[in-house]
Write a sequence for this structure.
């Protein structure tokens, strides 16, 4: 029996794969973004020409196989923006999934269907990918929890790539407990993770919370108040405070010298060049039809010269070193996930582009540094969801997820 697809979350609501084992995920249902290999299923990557030129997969993606082996049931292949090159959630060919918690507003992308499937209750959790914000943005817009892990911590085997040095497998759920259960299945054991020497323990982490001033300046005024209130509650219940009553050091400081817009441009140039290296040959050979905005991005990516890459890579390394040094062994960043609630469907093109630029600026920190980030749903203006994010040091994924479980509920979604 197929899934209820009234929110148009699914490309294939009939896709169903039973568990292959039992374990920590017994009884869990999950969807996959339509970029994950599922044996016998042809992934669309959100584009009819991709679907036409690629046959069914012979085996499951590594992440899918792990969830099935630990007792979860796969239910449905979820919509994605075309070749994952968008954070809006609109698709010129297959339509736009309906945001259950933001009527008349975009769901965010590119893991649009994954977020809607979770927010609507069609499944318990969903796998997606995140290169420039594709888990974090739709999670914030749809009012669910989302997680982007440390880059390279979860295998990308069997997942259609976009920009490999930024690509991650991420996941979404309606509770932080479920994020953590999935994390314990997909992530390496703590001793194997970079910078980790023991089991995840939120009691003694973090000891310092940094609010990046540039990120908070990007929050829309109507959303900033709700997000700052949520950040305050977060600081009151951070690890050490839960045991000793001693709050971690918290400070709002500038973390960049040129602003987040400059970091975002470094991200875009590196990402765009990688995207064309990944998909340019197929695009040139097959001449696929893209929606206007996606087509424009691919034309821009094709124009990027290799000569600019060395300087951008050097800048990226410097940014990563700077942020990791700032965090130290037990610090974190707390910031808005997106500037404000999801924009209206069919809204002003200029406003949509400004919102996209703001979201990418906020999301580029984790992308450039390869650090793990969790986004927590917060009730924003007019009862609409927004997101509060926390970024941790490398390999602190399980600490971050365990801490999220210990926090008080921040919203009613």
């Amino acid at each position: 029996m197929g899934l209820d697809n009234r929110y148009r979350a699914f490309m294939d609501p009939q896709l169903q794969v039973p568990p292959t084992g039992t374990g920590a995920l017994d009884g869990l249902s999950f969807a996959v973004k339509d970029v994950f290999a599922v044996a016998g299923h042809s992934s669309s990557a959100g584009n009819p020409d991709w679907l036409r030129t690629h046959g069914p997969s012979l085996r499951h993606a590594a992440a899918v196989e792990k969830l099935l082996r630990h007792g979860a049931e796969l239910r449905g292949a979820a919509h994605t923006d075309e070749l994952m090159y968008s954070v809006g959630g609109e698709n010129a060919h297959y339509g736009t999934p309906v945001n259950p918690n933001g009527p008349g507003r975009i769901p965010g992308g590119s893991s649009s269907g994954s977020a809607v499937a979770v927010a609507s209750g069609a499944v318990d959790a969903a796998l997606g990918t995140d290169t420039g914000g594709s888990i974090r943005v739709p999670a914030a817009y749809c009012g669910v929890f989302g997680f982007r892990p440390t880059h390279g911590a979860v295998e990308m085997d069997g997942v259609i790539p976009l920009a490999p040095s930024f690509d991650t497998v991420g996941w979404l759920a309606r509770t932080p407990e479920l994020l953590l259960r999935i994390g314990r299945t997909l992530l390496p054991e703590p001793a194997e993770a970079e910078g980790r020497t023991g089991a995840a323990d939120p009691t003694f982490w973090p000891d310092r919370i940094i609010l990046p001033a540039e990120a908070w300046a990007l929050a829309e005024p109507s959303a900033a108040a709700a997000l700052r209130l949520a950040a305050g509650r977060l600081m009151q219940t951070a690890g050490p405070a839960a045991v000793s009553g001693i709050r971690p050091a918290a400070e709002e400081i500038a973390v960049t010298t040129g602003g987040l817009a400059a970091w975002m441009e470094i991200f875009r140039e590196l990402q765009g060049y990688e995207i064309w290296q990944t998909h340019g040959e197929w695009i040139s050979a097959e001449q696929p039809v893209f929606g206007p905005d996606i087509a424009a991005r691919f034309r821009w990516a094709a124009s990027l010269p290799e000569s600019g890459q060395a300087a951008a890579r050097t800048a990226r390394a410097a940014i990563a070193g700077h942020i990791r040094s700032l965090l130290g062994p037990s610090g974190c960043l707390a910031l808005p996930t997106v500037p404000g609630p999801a924009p209206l469907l069919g809204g002003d093109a200029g406003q949509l582009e400004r919102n996209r630029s703001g979201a990418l600026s906020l999301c580029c920190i984790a992308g450039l540094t390869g650090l793990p980030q969790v986004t927590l749903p917060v009730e924003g203006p007019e009862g609409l969801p927004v997101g509060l994010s926390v970024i941790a040091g490398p390999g602190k994924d399980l600490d971050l997820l365990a801490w999220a479980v210990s926090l008080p509920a921040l919203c009613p979604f």
Observations:
- The CA atoms of residues 14 and 374 lie 30 Å apart.
- The mean pLDDT is 93.
- The first strand starts at residue 10 and ends at 17.
- The chain is about 40% helix and 15% strand.
